[in-house]
Design goal:
By secondary structure, this protein is of the alpha+beta class. It is built from seven helices and six strands, in the order ββαββααβαααβα. It has helices at about 40-45, 70-80, 80-100, 125-135, 155, 165-170, 185-200; strands spanning about 15, 30-35, 50-55, 55, 120-125, 175.
Amino acid sequence: RYAERSCGSVGHASALSFDPMKVLSALGSGGAVLTDDDEVAHRIRRLRYHGRQDGTYLDLGFNSQLSEVSAAALLVKLKHQPFWARRRKAIADYYLRELAGLPISFPVWSDKVDHVWHKFVLHCEAREPLAAFLKSSGIPTMIHYSRPFHREPIFARQTSAQFPAASRHADTALSLPIHAYLTKTETQTIVEAITSFFNRSHA
């Protein structure tokens, strides 16, 4: 949420992903478009089925229909979404509180944002040594989006421009474990391991 508005309620249309890695995931890939605009809704419905409406083809569309099995699974999961969001928020709040003061930083959010914490990302100049230390302690981490777009071959061939902020984020970002069924003991273990790493580094 942002202020009093839920995500998906701003603008003419909003796209949601139900990828298996998302908080609310389908059985395989899936997604949805939210809109209050009838014209947009009718067009999206046509586009998902080859641009077909009432037996005729009005647009050049796609075959992007969510299966009934995936839709049924999502309806069941949707009932658990409020609990999953509360648990992730509690875990993120614990990380933010307990890791404060260490030589790491976190994305800055407006106090109007109520975040679902799909990922918990920190920034650390010693990312690789920290990730290796956590791995040796049995704690998995991930580096999401390790290359900014301007480093990808498709774009690097077209520009020599440098984007220092994007590069800095890509080079220092590290995602910690976060999901609704992470236990209190597990989160404590993660915090203790990170604290131990920095204590050793500065000993």
